[in-house]
Specification:
By secondary structure, this protein is mainly β. It has strands at 20-23, 34-40, 45-48, 53-58, 68-73, 76-77, 81-85, 90-92, 94-99, 102-107. A hairpin with a 2-residue loop joins strand 9 and strand 10 (102-107). The two termini are 30 Å apart.
């Protein structure tokens, strides 16, 4: 199980599954855009493609007769990622604006609309 089950209320997140993000701190810090695979709003954590990799040893089974080692992504704090803006070419902080009665995420410096 990747995420710890909690009974906390669902918190609003600045990122969603499928968004392109930039990691802002730690070993995987770069301006390279990566995709979000999973979001856990209650814990405030996200799984980002190719970030925070861990090796898991798989036992031999009928489905996997060779067994072996696989690399899987582990969750990181959502505060460590920024949405990637194509216009700016780097990560950007966002705010929520109401446009035509809908909430839309908008980049603070570049004005890019993300929804």
């Amino acid at each position: 199980m990747l995420f710890k089950k909690t009974r906390a209320k669902r918190l609003p997140m600045h990122v969603k599954k499928g968004d392109k993000v930039v990691v802002t701190s730690g070993q995987y810090k770069s301006n390279e855009a990566r995709e979000i695979l999973k979001v856990d709003a209650a814990a405030g954590r996200v799984i980002v493609q190719g970030v925070n990799l861990r090796v898991k040893h798989q036992k031999r089974s009928q489905q996997n007769p060779k067994g072996g080692r696989i690399q899987i992504e582990q969750p990181i704090a959502a505060s460590k990622v920024l949405l990637f803006s194509e216009k700016a070419g780097k990560g950007t902080r966002t705010r929520v604006q109401i446009i035509d009665g809908k909430k839309v995420r908008v980049g603070i410096r570049c004005g890019t609309k993300f929804d």
